[in-house]
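RECORD CONTENTS
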Amino acid sequence: MNRPDNLIRWIRSLDPDLRAAQLMMVSPDHEQAPEDAADWCVDSGWGGIFLQWRHLREMEWLTAFMDRLREREEDSPPMLVAVDEEGGLVSDLRMLTGTAPSPAALGVIDDSMTTFQTALAMGDKLRALGFNLNFAPSLDVNVESKNPVIGTRAFGDTPQVVVKHGLATLEGYARAGLVSCVKHFPGHGSTRLDSHVALPVLDAPLELLETRELPPFRAAIDGGVQVVMTGHLACPALDPSGAPATLSPRILSGLLREELGFEGIIISDDMEMTGVAALGDAGAVARNAIEAGVDLLLYARSREMADEVRAALANAIDTGEIDEHRVLQSLARLGRLREAIRTTRTEIDATAREEIVDHEHEELLRAVALQGVTSLGPVGPELPVPWADRYGLMIVPTADAPRLDVDVEFLRNLIEPLRIGLEVVSLRPTAEQRECARYRASRADFIVACTLTRGFIVPEQRQLIDDLLVLKKQLTVVSLLDPHDLSEYPTVRTRLATRGFHRHALEALIHILTGLGDPRLEPL
């Protein structure tokens, strides 16, 4: 596929089943042996592979999978191998290696060179691990403080900040040789529903969309971004039918292709999310997405559903239910991208991979994480905490769920030498948990109470803070995710925000608490 005629021959060689498979990106079985999982990916003929947190718990599995994939591909254009590595909350690599601060933290630092260097560092890591496509950055403008799905995943709440740091991120990834995918077109930042569980509505007039949601995508397209991910959200101003963007010809073919001039690949968000999955038969929904303009359909969970959709698409292609020209357009775009990746692919040996992944960029990432910690108003006398001669207690909420699980053992190892105990509670602390935390806090000399919220205040977390305030102890409140909840505690003098709880963010927090660094001041 090094010449246009080879691309044409490749497309013509595909029967309807393989054409359908090429229009899909799926996830292998993480419980399979890595070599078997890689063989399944190649033998099935899928257009792309998506590895998630469940695949990225052991470096040995990932390395064996990638090695087998390269061995099977030989000299052919590589399969798209994607990961969701935004930094901060959405970091599927965080159990394997140090990762980047959240986009919100980079937006607060507000230095485009820092953002560029961070993206370059993470791009180097992803390339070294074998990935060629990253589902980042998010170009959503987070104007809705109660947004449960974007929040710290956005660089900020103005299009200017999002454009500035979105372009710096794209440049960093490109310099590393990584393909970027911007999302969630046409913008998920002003919604109050999570498209994983419902169909959100972007309810804004066209004039506002033109000045708020669309500028970051327009800038990325003008800058040459190669992949755009659709958002599963309705936007009546763009399509009065109420169809989500993923299924809307007016939004994808009309706005994104014709008006904004995007010529790259349009990939859907996960088609198993309720925002689109609840709209009908999976095969019919997939056909509608392709007809609307999607080039690559993402199925991140069920291989059974992927097989079902593949069969439905193959039948629609074979019978002409889907226009052949429309399918050929997508296959050509996908083939060109894979060929472009092949021409820039470099081999990295195990020693170099370990150096890049584990060592080369860690000092930078730690420094950036420290810069991203902020204080809401002036720091009070609670900092630095008197750990040298007093006993402290840190209270941390966490969940037994991907992306909301704080690495409590890592944190415990950080604070126990400082004579600070750790009390772990659930995201919605029970009455028993709150009582236990209050009792331990009553015996401590100082308290560091953390919150972990996404968009909405968690009443049980607020009740726990209220219980601690009654003790009249030296209290610092730390927001580990959405900093808007700090405004709920105006009587607390020292309020910090990390905008993430990956390992480097936790290290940065401890540096701030012990006086080894100063937080960035945010006005009240």
